[in-house]
Amino acid sequence: MNYPAAAPPVPVSHVPRWVWAGLVLLHLAALGWQLRRQQPYFPDSGRYVQAAHNLRTHGTLYAESLAGPALRPQEFTIRPPAYPLLLLLTGGDAAGRLPLATLLLQNALSLLNLGLVLRWLAETRLRQRQWGLVLLLAATAPAQFIYANVLMSELLLQTSVVVLWRALLAFGQPARPTRAFAVAALAAAAALLIKPVFFPAAALLLVLGLAVGWHRKRPVLVVWGAVPMVAALLWMSRNEARTGYFHYSSITEINLLRYNVRGVLQATEGPAAAESFVRSTLADSERLPTFQAQQHYIQQAGTAVLWRHPLAYAGQHLRGMLNFFLDPGRFDLVYFLGLRETTSPGLLHQLNQRGYPALWEYVRHLPLGLLAGLGVVLAANLARLVLALRFLVNGRYSLVSRWLLLVLVGYVAFLTGPLGASRFMVPVLPLWLAAAGAGLRAGSGFRLRLLANPARQGQRPATETEDGR
User: Fold this and answer.
1) Is the pTM of this model over 0.85?
2) Neighbours of 286 (CB within 10 A)
3) Distance (Å, rounded) from C-alpha 246 to C-alpha 291?
């Protein structure tokens, strides 16, 4: 007996309500845990909170207590102003009570960011089962929900990045390109005022505005393209007024010496030599008369080490970029859940000394429950990476959408370098989730097209779209 063929699954052109419900429940669960534990501070939260407190009480952005015996110039510029201002406006700088308004705002921003990428993803017409996989990929990215519920700047930066991405996508369309580019410029300016990693992006927006403005004969695009650079120059002028040194952030020299150079020396000359070099470089720099001279000395000494060991640094940079995509976030989970921290040196320290063979020695001492959870997240990270690569190489999607996502995610991964970890993926995590979700459809579109039209003539099936997504 011949039975009629089963109807193919119907694609969904909108985000299903149950996906929204799942995301809201995940955020509520993380927020509920934070309300119960009431410990919204990570190791790096202190400087943000102190900077916001100093703004409120003294009108000064300074990341340590102003009551100290001597003010350190680097603390005037180590944190850009945007996140301390957010803490100030939402009461996140108040000691002794949970910053509920700040956490509620960050959870709302997280849902907004995920919503913007899911609405784009809906245009690829995923099926119900594929939407289920998207929700699973989101649920197995705990950093998204953790950083929405701690006092860190990652979620605010994520909002700027997602808005920048959507605006640049719209800029490629014929409708209202000037408005779209204006939004992109403002988002880029906001991003660099949240985290120094987006300082170089000011030059990229300026070049884009110049090139497209000249090509389209629209000078207004050049003006908007200059907005992030103007914002950066104004902040650098403020820093010069405070420290006597025209620069963007002192975190640059801190990362160079205490992380990049230390890691290279640990791998090539041993831990003792690395610590000796860092201490002696800091001591020598402090003998110089000005902050500018001190920072230049650290730059020169640190850069000389990296040039002395170029292969070691290149290896650590590439390993950091791989960790950027794969790190399951042990640090994030341990601090957020309040688990007991190990007393042994961190994984980054051990990787710098012994490379990936140190990984097995490290994980075998982790608690079994934590190890199982990290294994699930690592598997999800691998799945997201494979699916995102599938999206990036697939011609079914427009070249602009693929390149834009690759450039934004690759930019953050490259500049993060040896420090690559789960935390630093958070600003672009929704974009990576969008790429992975699009990768779920990357193969089926070709099969449906060929089945419906072997001769490559006529119309596409109704399940296909012509939007270039």
Assistant:
1) yes
2) 9
3) 10
Task: Answer whether residue 447 shows pLDDT above 50.
Answer: no
For the stretch 80-92, pLDDT in tens is: 999 999 999 999 9
